[in-house]
Amino acid sequence: MQQNKSITEFILFGLTQDPKRQKMVFILFLIFYIGTVVGNLLIIVAIKFSPALGSPMYFFLFYLSLTDACFSTSIAPRLIIDALFAKKVISYNECMTQIFALHLFGCMEIFVLILMAGDRYVAICKPLHYQTIMRQQVCIMLIILSWIGSFIHSISQIALVLKLPFCGPNLIDHYCCDLQPLLKLACMDTYVINLLLVSNSGALCLSGFLLLIISYFVILHSLRNHSAEGRKKALSTCTSHITVVALSFGPCIFIYTRPPTTFPMDKMVTVFYTIGTPFLNPLIYTLRNAEVKNAIKKLWSIKITSENK
Where is the G-protein coupled receptors family 1 profile domain (predicted)? Predict the structure, then answer.
């Protein structure tokens, strides 16, 4: 990336400056990150190689798991490595790249969750037309449009940040590069830029959340006309989706839909949605979904059988 700034690197404050706590950060988040990658890869492999998981719902779950793994990878490895050093230096280009990746995969997660809600709406409210509406070509096109929309969102964020002059100081009071902490370091009035950033990220989070809440309200309302067994199965699936929506959107709305100010709890809220949520999502979808659990067990048993031959 071309830069016309006097500052070529930033120093990250991190989660803590205490050496003992930094060791705890290293161990704890290394475990979380490994669990995130393994859990999401298990779901990706199970959906990819299991014929039983060929429905559109699992097609979208595949991309949610892929997005979660990439989203966490854009933040967690840097946090883990930085915990080993007293001075946490990140170059200007690395900082911009991290912001781009954070918003690309964060936005993609929002779009995939909306697509999953749409899939459940069609399956439950319009079951006779499900195969026609949610055919493979439509699902692929929706995912492509989601990637394009995420890329446009992320580029628009970076385009605003790249215009900011940074002439010192260069200490970011955070463990990663994000928009709000970075705006505080700019050598200019950032009020208008902050409004543009909030109107982009904040509006995306809030409108996506409201759309999902309305969708699931309609879905749950329509379950009155289903059989007891159908209601139980649909409720189990929707409960998992609603839980993930709450975990994903709550912190996102808190961070990106407010005036240009920072709070002491910002770091922990960011930790929750950048590292905690991608770790919890595979657990939520596997523990509450018998089809995914059975597919993983079947693939595992096939692997063991092939190794024993």
Answer: 39-285
